[in-house]
Design brief:
- There is one protein chain.
- The protein is an alpha+beta fold.
- The protein folds into two domains: 1-43, no CATH class; 45-101, HU Protein, Chain A.
- The protein has three helices and five strands, in the order H-H-E-E-E-E-E-H.
- A three-stranded antiparallel β-sheet has the order 1-2-5. Strands 3-4 form a two-stranded antiparallel ribbon.
- Helix 1 (8-19) crosses helix 2.
- The chain starts with 7 loop residues before the first helix and ends with a helix.
Length: 101
Amino acid sequence: MAENHVTKSQFVEHLTAKTGLPKKQVEKIVNTVFQTMIDTMVQGGRIEIRGFASFFVKTYKGYKGRNPKTGDAVMVEEKRLPFFKVGKELRTYLNESSRIE
């Protein structure tokens, strides 16, 4: 997994190789973890994985904006966006490993 990006299927393959578990079982576990995180955030909850990160949703109120093409006023509706905040241990690890390379 030394690529610049990893797809979900590559992630599953890596976990399958690391654990020796059947691929179907690993897929089910990964999908369950992701769906649980999604369900928690949809309900307004926060996920905290100590040392790694926390995931939460921010709500932005609606506002009056402008269409950049026409200049017409438009109402931008309220929206909710997911956020990721890196944990201290992961941040430290990333900064130390970047000095090594």
